[in-house]
Amino acid sequence: MQIEGSVALVTGTNRGLGKAYAMALLAAGAAKVYAAARDPSAVTDPRLVPVRLDVTKPDEIAAAAAHCGDVNLLINNAGVMHSSPMMTEGSEVAMRAEMEVNVYGVLGMIRAFAPVLKRNGGGAIVNVLSVVSWFTLPFNATYGASKRAALAVTESARIELKAQRTRVLSVHAGYIDTDMAADISQPKTSPQQVAARTLEALRSGNDLVLADDRAQHVWQATRADPFGFAESMQKLWDERQPK
Question: Has 188 been annotated as catalytic?
């Protein structure tokens, strides 16, 4: 896909990775970038077109699709993470909140914008997922469940929308240096790198975006030895439990 001259909508653009996507698209020559956020006043760059959008609200999704009828590139970036193990008290509350944004929000956006993309020649949809869509990190299990479900949504949409020439990409990374991972003491990837690799994939025709070294490693390890990888998660969990 040619980025220059494209019309994109990015969700969650007021900060972090969403903002990095918006800046990368402008730098690559996008004709227009709709910057979707729950509070559009937080979008202050005059080169962006603010759009009010909470992806958990179907009426706002419908309004955005009606208003942004020239879009040929949709980037589903908005997400939440509550870092909850499955057996922790309140895990069902955490997972419901994550599912609402990370799964149902993505599905709602795809369903609303698929006809828009079809009218505009097909275009592409980019879904920001995670390395934990491929395995279960027990300390962050509810978030991983939402991202694994979002991967299923992505793969199904890719199959169903191929006939209308809409590409559907999945973006996978480890921890990204944004507010979402601010309290995590692990190596992090810059949001600018994730955005750059996504645009490279759009240009090259690759629908799988391995956005950092962690994604490369997990992609290979979970396929070469899935049982061994699962055992390493058990060991990690056991080592961190109180003695």
Answer: no
